[in-house]
Write a structure and sequence with these properties.
Low-confidence stretches: 17-41
Strand order of the largest sheet: 1-2-9-6-7-4-3-10
Helix content: 25-40%
Radius of gyration: 23 Å
Number of helices: 4
Structural class: alpha+beta
Distance between the termini: 59 Å
Mean pLDDT: 83
Amino acid sequence: MPRKTLRTCCSENLLTALLCISALPALMPHSALAETNQNATREQPMRIAMLANGKTLTFKLEDNHTTRDFVALLPLDLALEDYASTEKISTLSRKLTTEGAPSGYTPAAKDFAYYAPWGNIAIFHKGFKYSPGLIKLGTLESDLDLIRQPGPLNVRFELIKEKKKK
């Protein structure tokens, strides 16, 4: 049986290492791979627009699983209703993932959130107490005048496409 040279052993080990590295994407869970790729390419926070009554309001989004699941529904037409003189809410067509979400949080005016127990989104125009099951999706960057107006509000949410830097 011929003896392996040092060069042959090193070549075999290098080839094995390269094969293992090239197999990693196939072995990673799809969500972990997608999140890794997404985080590597996202330099700016995601933003969405809410169009209503001829006005456009913008939201800066949080980087979490629940927010990404909401963005997957866009574009989205909803009717927002007043709730508790504190927020406008609307129930979504399906529940969003709560993977990795905190158990709840204390919302402030301008917060855009998802209330997991009911499956609805909320835009707060007043602060509120700590709420279990509430997940922050983002923050309103525009003024609150439109949200504070009483009565239902028909809106359309759209993702704002960020211009790529050259």
